[in-house]
Amino acid sequence: MRPLTTIDTYEHPDLEESLELRFPTEEEAEVDQDEEWCEIVTDDGDRRRIRFHDYHELYEIPGLYEHVFYDKLKCNSPQVVRALLEEEFAKADFDPSDLRVLDLGAGNGMVAEELARMGARTQVGIDIIEEAKEATERDRPDVYEQYVVVDLTDPGEDVRSDMRDRDFNCLITIAALGFGDIPPVAFAEAYNYVEDGGWIAFNIKDDFLEHHDSTGFRRLIRRLMREGALEECAEREYTHRLSLAGEPLNYVAIVARKRADAPIDWVRDAENG
Question: What is the full DSSP assignment across 210-242?
């Protein structure tokens, strides 16, 4: 497959001027997924390179995240995971309007928007990036009941108590696992906010569920399943999006039911290998 067109004009109603986006050439595009980038060139000729995993820089520019990942790179993970959830809800005769969702790594609310279309009425977003909250308030102000900016490796007792009191019955995290953005201890913290029997939905690059995961996430998930704390309901392999080189990036979407909390010693064992 061929890489993206290298020059693109980006316009948005909230921007005073159009921006020129420069994507890597075919030679430049041969980089690891977490090193992909584009450059922004203003009418004045100012040039700024943004690495795609520096999400705060993408969120600062209205609509740029959606333009890069969804328009240009054809990301469809929110739709895929939503469809997988809908299938499992139908099998379990579960009404989506009863969802109390914790959206981990919430970003700018695109996943919550999909769940709202499905019928979810109560959603709380958590992210470590202040710009993500600001982008959500700017672009999707009505999708969350609350948006919390916090580092879940050390959330503090006030946040922990508030989250536990909400009786979440669904945890969802999309396109946020596997590159160290959400370590196992942060995932486990959020996981433990969900009541037993609740739904757990996430996606991750297929490599990270095999033997290439240095974060410990694969070890934690496998142990949760092996010990009966997490019961897998459905798994689907699919193309998450295209790389800048035009190649498919294959991910796995998983929907499961929580049966018990994740003990801290399991998390430590997973992180320490």
Answer: TT--SSSHHHHHHHHHHTTSEEEEEEEEEEEEE
233 and 255 in contact (C-beta within 8 Å)?
yes
Answer yes or no: do 197 and 265 share one domain: yes
Given a cut of 50, whether residue 123 has pLDDT beyond it is yes
Whole-number Cα distances in Å, 151 to 51, 99, 170:
22, 24, 20
Which residue in 171, 106, 96, 160 sits closest to 136, CA to CA?
106
User: Judging by DSSP bridges, how do beta strands 7-10 and 19-22 pair with one another?
Assistant: antiparallel
Q: At which residue do the structure tokens 């320490």 appear?
A: 272
What does pTM read for this prediction?
A: 0.92
Surface-to-core class of residue 265, CB atoms within 10 Å of its CB (0-12 exposed, 13-18 middle, 19+ buried): exposed
Domain of 92?
77-272
CA 233 – CA 12 distance, rounded (Å): 41
Would you give the DSSP letter of residue 60?
T
Q: Give the pLDDT band (50/70/90) at residue 1.
A: very low
Number of domains in the chain: 2
Instruction: Give dist(CA 100, CA 121) in Å, integer.
Output: 7
Decide if 147 is inside a domain. yes
Other CB atoms within 10 Å distance of the CB of residue 160: 15
Buried b (16+ CB within 10 A) or exposed e, 27-55: eebeeebeebbbbbeeeeeeeeebebeeb
Per-residue model confidence as pLDDT tens digits over 194-241: 999 999 999 988 877 766 666 688 889 999 999 999 999 999 999 999
Higher pLDDT, 32 or 162: 162
- 53: closest CA among 232, 192, 178? 178
